[in-house]
């Protein structure tokens, strides 16, 4: 590129930022009592705050929901299409819904709002058009009309989505102030800061004990793979009676397929890894993490003193991130 082209990009970038800045200044000046009433409604919410929107507005909604959840206001995002196909069952009378649409005429969203209203659930809309269909279906409307989009053709959501996002931040911060949400509260909602304390826990406090993915070593490979698939941990434990005798991982299956020797009717015992790494319930999470890091694995079977399988522990259980739904290509 020429120096002129590079200079033009910088100039255009500044223009876009100025347009978006002007948009924020515009909604700042137009902010009225409806915003304060929205904060009041959200502060009095006895349920959850549910954010909904489609397309770019949906992406903005996801961010607002995440911000509120991490700052003391239980919140989640509801996709309007999924809502129309069953997820509306998550909405309760005591919840408050925040609906986002710049035009206020998003068909999928407006088809959902009457059903939400029928539950007695209150609705706050963030839109540029107060008299839109969405606006009329709402209890409170926060107007976010910007002078123009930053897009050259005035089509791509740019300034309008920035405005909606900023309003979401303003609502979240006002709720934080109302609840006197401080730095100590913030830490509670960010478990990464409490990882050190989590790693002092015993494996028995963190391990999976229900529906452990385990199969008999003398059963077929097909039977073991069915358990592996349903288990969701990337590993199936093979047992001799109740004692752990081996494991098969997702990675083992992949290597078996690539070798050309994949036969689901053979005994699981023929392909299992014998005498796999295992830990005991009284070990600490930190010890388990050390083993996982050194051996580059993500899941370990847990056995008692007699070698009986009693549970499973995944790396994400140790880190406080919940159960993983897919597995790494590792061997135990």
TrEMBL record:
Signal sequence, renumbered to the chain: none
Keywords: CBS domain, Isomerase, Metal-binding, Repeat, Zinc
Sequence ranges assigned to domain SIS in this UniProt record: 38-181
GO biological process: carbohydrate derivative metabolic process; carbohydrate metabolic process
Cross-referenced PROSITE patterns: CBS, SIS
SUPFAM superfamilies named in the record: SIS domain
Annotated positions binding Zn(2+): 79
Entries under InterPro entries matching the protein: CBS_dom (IPR000644), CBS_dom_sf (IPR046342), GutQ/KpsF_isomerases (IPR050986), KdsD/KpsF-type (IPR004800), SIS_dom (IPR001347), SIS_dom_sf (IPR046348), SIS_Kpsf (IPR035474)
Assigned EC number: 5.3.1.13
GO MF annotations, alphabetized: arabinose-5-phosphate isomerase activity; carbohydrate derivative binding; metal ion binding
CBS domain mapped to chain residues: 207-264, 272-328
Superkingdom, taxonomy of origin: Bacteria
Residues under site feature: Catalytically relevant: 56, 108, 149, 190
Family: Belongs to the SIS family. GutQ/KpsF subfamily.
Protein name: KpsF/GutQ family protein
Organism: Maridesulfovibrio salexigens (strain ATCC 14822 / DSM 2638 / NCIMB 8403 / VKM B-1763) (Desulfovibrio salexigens)
Lineage, uppermost ranks: Bacteria, Pseudomonadati, Thermodesulfobacteriota, Desulfovibrionia, Desulfovibrionales
């Amino acid at each position: 590129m020429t120096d002129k082209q590079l200079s033009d990009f910088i100039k255009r970038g500044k223009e876009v930022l100025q347009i978006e800045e002007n948009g924020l200044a515009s909604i700042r000046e137009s902010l009225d009592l409806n915003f304060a009433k929205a904060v009041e409604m959200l502060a009095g919410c006895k349920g959850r705050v549910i954010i909904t929107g489609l397309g770019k507005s949906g992406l903005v909604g996801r961010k607002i929901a995440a911000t509120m959840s991490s700052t003391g206001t239980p919140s989640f995002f509801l996709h309007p299409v999924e809502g129309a196909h069953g997820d509306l069952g998550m909405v309760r009378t005591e919840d408050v819904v925040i609906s986002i649409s710049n035009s206020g005429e998003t068909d999928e969203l407006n088809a959902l709002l009457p059903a939400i209203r029928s539950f007695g659930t209150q609705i706050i809309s963030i839109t540029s058009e107060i008299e839109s269909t969405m606006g009329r279906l709402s209890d409170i409307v926060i107007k976010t009309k910007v002078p123009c989009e930053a897009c050259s053709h005035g089509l791509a959501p740019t300034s309008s989505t920035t405005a909606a996002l900023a309003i979401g931040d303003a609502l979240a911060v006002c709720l934080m102030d109302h609840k006197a949400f401080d730095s100590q509260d913030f830490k509670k909602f960010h478990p990464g800061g409490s990882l050190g304390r989590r790693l002092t826990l015993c494996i028995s406090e963190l391990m999976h004990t229900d529906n452990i993915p385990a199969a008999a070593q003398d059963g077929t490979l097909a039977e073991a793979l069915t358990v592996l698939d349903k288990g969701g941990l990337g590993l199936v434990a093979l047992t001799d009676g109740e004692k752990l005798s081996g494991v098969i991982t997702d990675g083992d299956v992949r290597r078996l397929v690539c070798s050309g020797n994949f036969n689901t009717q053979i005994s699981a015992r023929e392909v299992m890894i014998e005498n796999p790494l295992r830990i005991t319930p009284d070990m600490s999470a930190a010890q388990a993490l050390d083993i996982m890091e050194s051996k580059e694995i993500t899941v370990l079977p847990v056995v008692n003193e007699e070698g009986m399988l009693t549970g499973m522990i995944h790396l994400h259980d140790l880190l406080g991130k919940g159960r993983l739904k897919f597995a790494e290509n590792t061997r135990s």
